[in-house]
Amino acid sequence: MIVVAGEALVDLVPTAEGHLAPRMGGGPYNAAVAAGRLGAPVGFLSRLSTDLFGDRLVERLHAAGVGTDLVQRGPEPTTLAVVGLGEDGSARYSFYVEGTADRRVTDPGPLPAAVRAVSFGTLSLVLEPGASTYERVLWREAERGALTVLDPNVRAGLIRDPSAYRDRYDSWLAHVGLLKVSADDARWLAGLPGDAPEEDVLDVVRDWRDAGPAAVVLTLGGDGLAVLTGAGEVIRVPPVPVAVVDTIGAGDTVQGALLAWLHDHDALSTEAVRGMDAARWTEALGHAGAAAAITCSRAGAEPPFKRELEMT
């Protein structure tokens, strides 16, 4: 079983008519939905509001086949994110997070022995007191031997002390089995200029992999996906051509699709990830890229179901 831990929220997405339409979202939530829709046995660890949005978030998890035994409920409101879209479909976010439910998650204690992988990321590792709770789960599950997967999915506007956050991120790497990061987030985390060349990014990624992860998957936007493998190779796959509606949830879909692929190929362990060769990584990244392309072809974070991916 896989557990995805982190926030769930509501994206308010602009429509063609100029309105804001609510879409269920949040990086970890989207990753859990993606993995569930692709047939992986996945559960979600978070705290959701008992408000109407919280009910809708739970309903969508159930519809995707995601288990909710680890979902806590509380009276605090649901986090909101107002989304702005660029001409290329890229998204920027403004968040309303004060006193919201996902920040109040409590430590669930050791996860069931059947849990082989736990995925973390996004706002849940920034906003206290929840960030410290998820951090403890990360350390404990890594110590237990589960495959820990991290997608920092940086939202810089919510990080009040970038230097402290970067130090904290560095402290996680020794406990991470698989790191997935966008090239833009890698630049920010390393303190590189936004236009730093890809080779500089790869140098940073090599240092991160040496600090702990068995492999590092790098999302490159319109240039596809790459991975720095356990053997030190850089494997690339090109993007899947698609008419982009927006990119909301694309990276989260990559995360969920990778988790589903690793489950389907009996590779949900740090050692299995470290031992994957070029052929297997090419297949895994191709699977994740195809899933993300479908998400980009429709509005909001709507990852594909397994049957849709099989038809491509």
Automatic annotation (TrEMBL):
Keyword terms of this UniProt record: ATP-binding, Kinase, Nucleotide-binding, Transferase
Domain (Carbohydrate kinase PfkB) ranges: 2-303
EC number of the protein: 2.7.1.4
EC primary class: transferase
Pfam (any one): PfkB
Gene3D superfamilies referenced in this protein's UniProt entry, alphabetically: 3.40.1190.20
Domain of life: Bacteria
GO MF annotation terms: ATP binding; fructokinase activity
SUPFAM superfamilies in the cross-refs: Ribokinase-like
InterPro entries named among the record's database cross-references: Carboh/pur_kinase_PfkB_CS, PfkB_Carbo_kinase, PfkB_dom, Ribokinase-like
Transmembrane portions of the chain: none
PANTHER family referenced in this protein's UniProt entry, alphabetically: HEXOKINASE FAMILY MEMBER, PSEUDOURIDINE KINASE-RELATED
Family: Belongs to the carbohydrate kinase PfkB family.
Protein name per UniProt: Carbohydrate kinase
